[in-house]
Amino acid sequence: AQSVTQPDIHITVSEGASLELRCNYSYGATPYLFWYVQSPGQGLQLLLKYFSGDTLVQGIKGFEAEFKRSQSSFNLRKPSVHWSDAAEYFCAVGPSTGGFKTIFGAGTRLFVKA
Amino acid sequence: KAGVTQTPRYLIKTRGQQVTLSCSPISGHRSVSWYQQTPGQGLQFLFEYFSETQRNKGNFPGRFSGRQFSNSRSEMNVSTLELGDSALYLCASSPRTGSDTGELFFGEGSRLTVL
Hints:
The complex is a heterodimer of chains A (114) and B (115). Chain A is mainly β. Chain A has strands at 3-5, 10-14, 19-21, 24-26, 32-38, 44-50, 56-58, 64-68, 73-78, 87-94, 103-104, 108-113.
């Protein structure tokens, strides 16, 4: 069965510091992988996605993620965090074929301190 | 292009009542998925509709049901509400065309409180 694990429930970083959010997945076939962000009271917005090609993908707001098949990981990174990045981040795995049933991780809440 | 619209945004019900939530997808999107979001459980997949047919279903009791209309708009219904049904219900649409990479476009959600 497919699953997504985000081991960190919350993370606090200082503004201007680098960020890495961890994500591990379990999926039988080649996955489509996503990172979404949710600000308080809002729906989710796509940050970036991977489904083939270059394993380092760039997203919006200066985020990037690296797909490592050998480690079943898709970690999200940002070199310099801004206070506006405080939000909840969700890693997700979707089907490459067939029915759509995107599975989300439990989320990591990011706090940014001045 | 208008985004995904969910109504109502907030509602309060009492135990035993039923509720219907509505979702209008992005124009041209044919797939609508529903998720329940709670602090303890995260985002849990409810079901996905495509061309008026339920294509996938999550592990929720039969009290949770949905449907999709010919214009791709979708509704979900929860009957005999329980306190544990209090949650943010999120709807997401996707094109479901040959070039679709599975990205979901979310609405802002319907916040249900059961008293």
